[in-house]
Design goal:
This protein is mostly helical. Helix 1 packs across helix 4. The longest helix has about 30 residues. The protein is globular and about 40 Å long. The two termini are about 25 Å apart.
Length: about 120
């Protein structure tokens, strides 16, 4: 990760997306609607869907994804045990590179106060 913290990274990415929100409003609104629909509770609750999103972020090695989904998982009350189990699945699906990113994901979760910084 090139920035000092996941909180800084998520703020920076949000700032950098501002021009897209202005100049590509339809695309950004469509992406926002897609996200809202994908995360809406159904057979799976929002927390489960965010755990899936985090696992995909780990497997795809997306730093900003780690920050945004860690923040959401903390807000949704994901426990350290749930988070670690999700990381196990992400590593299983993504191999060694995902193992390295699992450590980054745990750091992002703890930085946002996940399970009281993993007590």
């Amino acid at each position: 990760m090139s920035t000092a913290s996941y909180q800084e990274l998520t703020r920076e990415v949000s700032r950098n997306l501002a021009p897209l929100r202005t100049h590509n409003a339809d695309v950004m609104q469509g992406f926002g609607a897609l996200g809202k629909a994908a995360l809406a509770p159904g057979a799976l609750d929002e927390k489960t869907k965010e755990l899936i999103a985090m696992a995909i972020g780990v497997a795809n090695r997306c730093d900003a994804c780690l920050g945004f989904h860690a923040k959401a998982l903390v807000r949704l009350g994901a426990t350290s045990q749930e988070f670690r189990e999700m990381l196990g699945v992400a590593v299983y699906m993504g191999g060694g590179p995902s193992l390295m990113y699992a450590a980054n994901a745990m750091a992002a979760y703890e930085e946002f106060g996940g399970a009281a910084a993993a007590a």
